[in-house]
């Protein structure tokens, strides 16, 4: 009899223990990280061949007490390694655990390696070589407190590597985890459909389970094949029996499997994987959108199972929320009477489905905690209080529709032949019907405040012909976001929450915000843009985020402004300076205008359109200066208009031209490599305005603004420069920022003799 330890992923140990008992192994015991048992060599082979949940099969060689590194070395030196492998074979050591003296796994593995090598040298005057990746034989050392256990790894490579999946999609499930999901889903052999199958792991594992195909029968090699105590005859008999049984089982299987994905490439990969697994003829693959997939025509019930994509796999958080919400609506309507099992890495996302789970199970995908939830979709719909069961159309009805409607049936859109796409696909009609249903994630307080703001601001925006404005700016402390409208687009900017706030609570609230906003404004996927930002620090708003280049031309008074909705934290248009830009347009007629820290030169556009004799726009960034020139081109502006790439402070010190109107909106703080010194607006504004005063004509004006909280203008120093000073902050705050009157401060400085 041998003692075995069978490690498995966290969450799978109960399933593994039941599986071992089904193999006839009786004295099992769950321990940390897996299951142990005493059994024969044949039973060890059976686990390698038949286990769907085991990560490895470890056979114990020795166990001894370890206080310090020398104990580990001496204990391993006493193991007869030469009885397990020859000196011409390569080996590797996996080590885990620690105690007070052995705190590093690499150090522990090194002591075992030294013991093995030294024993071979003493006996044969030769030593075997270590090969980390493709060793002939693998050993495993595990240390817990003062006890070390040394094992030979019979499996070799991890058992989740079945052999059928040579190419996987993005963020694939391990085969062992996929098998666990299928087992916990409650699937009993009914028709199974995965509408987002990826590389097909879930559906393939289910098909192999249905046919009772031994997962190890697909592998080319196992670690025990180079072991000197390997019983090749016993192994050959076990494997041959399993392979023969699998071939017969395929012909006797009545269960049908369906798998679809939006990606043609993934379907191709999934089909190839299924072919290698020997189950391809049981699975019907198709390319289609999960939000439009319909049940196979011949089925009235079955099970949906899926691991939907999330986050970056979709391209954005908003898209993820949208997907889960729309899946919930579609599944409830199109798959009434079916069971549903959904695996996700975020339980909050699953709440977007709008269904109550009957059971839930916790799993771990590597170190990441995940959740599996099982649902029963009601077999009935309620229409105006009457409970009805939807009837599928007859062939005669479909034929009549075909005769009266002008369309071409698409087998790709509807590969399982349920409903023909009459004028408009049924899934589209269903979604339109349910779109006004309040989502599962809905924040009542936030919704009321947003509706109140919309009622006030939408009328104002329409009256003033304003296309871009702020709808919400952290009005409620627990919903800490800014929401800006850009025509039909909405941008939600999440302020980074303090570290002491629970991350799960922050995520839940943000889900509330996004879901509620989408519902209230009836937004499509591409109309909602999500950004996360710190409270503005210096020119942090200029940092690049992405390169989607989603650009839009918006109208602001007489000006057309190009905005970029996704690539940067800010869009190229500071909404709170709208009144100031419009004021500049009215003040600039016949004047030479200077725009320092010009960003995308929007103020210069207004000045030029207002009749400025010339404009000069200065900024350190070529990107924004080019953007500014595009704004000028968009407005058809020609004439004396200059764009200068330089540090504004340095440029002022060497400039000779004089101006009638200067606009200065500096960053709060900057330590750019292009600047010779660090700039702080509080400390350096007097020096900045002193340099600017030398460039302004008599009776000329400077509009000076900044957004530093608590900023104090050195009034006496500015007056000493020969300026009349007028605080115009109140007049410069637009209607959509009235709730945040500290968004910026603004002064009008008029030069006098």
Secondary structure layout:
Layout: E1 2-7, H1 13-22, E2 29-31, E3 34-39, H2 41-50, E4 58-65, H3 69-77, E5 91-98, H4 105-124, E6 137-144, E7 147-153, H5 175-184, E8 192-194, H6 201-211, H7 232-252, E9 257-261, H8 264-277, E10 283-287, E11 303-306, H9 317-334, E12 339-344, H10 347-350, E13 359-365, E14 368-376, E15 381-383, E16 386-388, H11 395-404, H12 426-434, H13 444-464, E17 468-473, E18 481-486, E19 489-495, H14 503-521, E20 528-533, E21 551-556, E22 559-564, H15 578-587, E23 592-596, H16 602-609, E24 614-619, H17 622-634, E25 641-645, H18 648-654, E26 659-664, E27 669-670, E28 679-680, H19 681-693, E29 696-706, H20 715-720, E30 723-727, H21 729-732, E31 745-751
Parallel strand pairs: 5-6, 8-9, 8-11, 9-10, 11-12, 19-20, 23-24, 23-26, 24-25, 26-29
Antiparallel strand pairs: 1-3, 1-4, 2-3, 4-7, 6-7, 12-14, 13-14, 15-16, 17-18, 18-19, 21-22, 27-28, 29-31, 30-31
Quick take:
The protein has 753 residues and is an alpha/beta fold. The protein contains 21 helices and 31 strands.
C-alpha Rg, in Å? Answer: 35 Å
Large-scale geometry: elongated
Question: Structural class from helices and strands?
Answer: alpha/beta
Tell me what portion of residues adopts beta-strand conformation.
15-25%
């Amino acid at each position: 009899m041998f003692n075995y330890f069978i490690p498995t992923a966290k969450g799978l140990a109960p399933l593994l223990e039941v599986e071992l008992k089904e193999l006839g192994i009786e004295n099992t015991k769950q321990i940390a990280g897996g299951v142990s048992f005493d059994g024969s060599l044949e039973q060890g082979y059976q686990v390698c061949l038949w286990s769907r949940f085991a990560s490895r099969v470890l056979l114990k060689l020795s166990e001894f007490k370890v206080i310090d590194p020398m104990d580990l070395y001496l204990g391993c030196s006493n193991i007869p390694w030469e009885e397990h492998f020859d000196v011409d074979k390569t080996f590797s050591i996996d080590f885990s655990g620690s105690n007070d003296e052995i705190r590093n796994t690499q150090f522990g593995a090194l002591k075992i390696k030294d013991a093995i090598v030294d024993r071979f040298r003493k006996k044969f005057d030769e030593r075997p070589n270590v090969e980390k990746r493709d060793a002939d034989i693998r050993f495993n050392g595990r240390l817990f407190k003062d006890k070390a256990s040394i094992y030979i790894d019979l499996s070799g490579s991890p058992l989740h590597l079945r052999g059928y999946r040579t190419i996987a999609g993005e963020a694939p499930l391990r085969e062992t985890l996929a098998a666990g999901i299928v087992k916990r889903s409650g699937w009993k052999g009914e028709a199974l459909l995965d509408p987002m199958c990826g590389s097909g792991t879930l559906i393939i594992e289910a098909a192999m389970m249905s046919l009772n195909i031994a997962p190890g029968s697909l592998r080319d090699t196992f670690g025990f094949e180079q072991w000197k105590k390997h019983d090749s005859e016993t192994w050959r008999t076990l494997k041959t029996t399993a392979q023969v049984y699998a071939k017969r089982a395929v012909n006797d299987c009545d269960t049908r499997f369906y798998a679809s994905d939006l990606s043609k490439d993934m379907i191709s990969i999934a089909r190839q994987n299924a072919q290698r697994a020997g189950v391809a003829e049981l699975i019907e693959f198709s390319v289609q959108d999960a939000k439009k997939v319909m049940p196979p025509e011949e089925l009235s019930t079955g099970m949906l199972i899926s691991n939907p994509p999330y986050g970056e796999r979709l391209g954005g958080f908003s898209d993820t929320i949208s997907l889960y919400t729309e899946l919930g609506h579609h599944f409830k309507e199109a798959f009434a009477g079916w069971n549903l099992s959904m695996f996700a890495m975020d339980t909050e996302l699953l709440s977007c489905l709008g269904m109550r789970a009957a059971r839930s199970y916790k799993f771990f995908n590597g170190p990441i905690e995940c959740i599996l939830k099982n649902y029963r979709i009601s077999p009935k719909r309620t229409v105006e209080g009457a409970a009805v069961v939807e009837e599928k159309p007859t062939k005669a009805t479909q034929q009549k529709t075909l005769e009266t409607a002008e369309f071409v049936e698409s087998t790709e859109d509807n590969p399982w032949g349920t409903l023909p796409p009459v004028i408009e696909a049924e899934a589209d009609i269903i979604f339109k019907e349910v779109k006004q249903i309040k989502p599962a994630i809905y924040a009542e307080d936030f919704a009321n405040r947003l509706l109140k703001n919309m009622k006030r601001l939408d009328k104002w925006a329409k009256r003033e012909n304003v296309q871009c404005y702020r709808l919400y700016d952290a009005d409620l402390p627990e919903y800490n976001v800014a929401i800006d409208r850009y025509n039909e687009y909405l941008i939600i900017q999440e302020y980074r929450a303090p570290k002491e706030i629970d991350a799960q609570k922050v995520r839940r609230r943000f889900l509330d915000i996004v879901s509620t906003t989408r519902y209230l404004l009836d937004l499509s996927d591409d109309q909602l843009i999500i950004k996360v930002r710190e409270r503005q620090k210096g020119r942090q708003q200029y940092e690049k985020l992405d390169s989607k280049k989603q650009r839009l031309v918006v109208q602001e008074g007489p000006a057309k402004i190009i905005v970029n909705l996704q690539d940067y934290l800010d869009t190229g248009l500071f909404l709170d300076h709208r009144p100031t830009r419009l004021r500049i347009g009215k003040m600039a007629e016949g004047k030479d205008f200077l725009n320092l820290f010009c960003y995308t030169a929007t103020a210069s556009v207004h000045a030029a359109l207002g009749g400025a004799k010339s404009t000069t726009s200065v900024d350190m960034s070529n990107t924004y200066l080019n953007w500014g020139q595009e704004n000028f081109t968009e407005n058809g502006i020609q004439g004396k208009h200059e764009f200068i790439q330089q540090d504004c402070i340095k440029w002022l010190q060497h400039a000779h031209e004089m101006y009638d109107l200067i606009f200065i909106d500096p960053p709060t703080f900057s330590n750019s490599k292009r600047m010779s010194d660090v700039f702080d607006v509080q400390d350096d504004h007097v020096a900045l305005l002193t340099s600017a005063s030398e460039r302004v004509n008599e009776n000329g004006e400077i509009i000076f603004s900044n957004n530093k909280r608590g900023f104090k203008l050195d009034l006496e120093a500015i007056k000493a420069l020969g300026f009349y000073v007028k605080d115009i902050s109140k007049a410069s705050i637009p209607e959509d920022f009235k709730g945040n009157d500290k968004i910026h401060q603004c002064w009008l400085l008029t030069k006098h003799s």
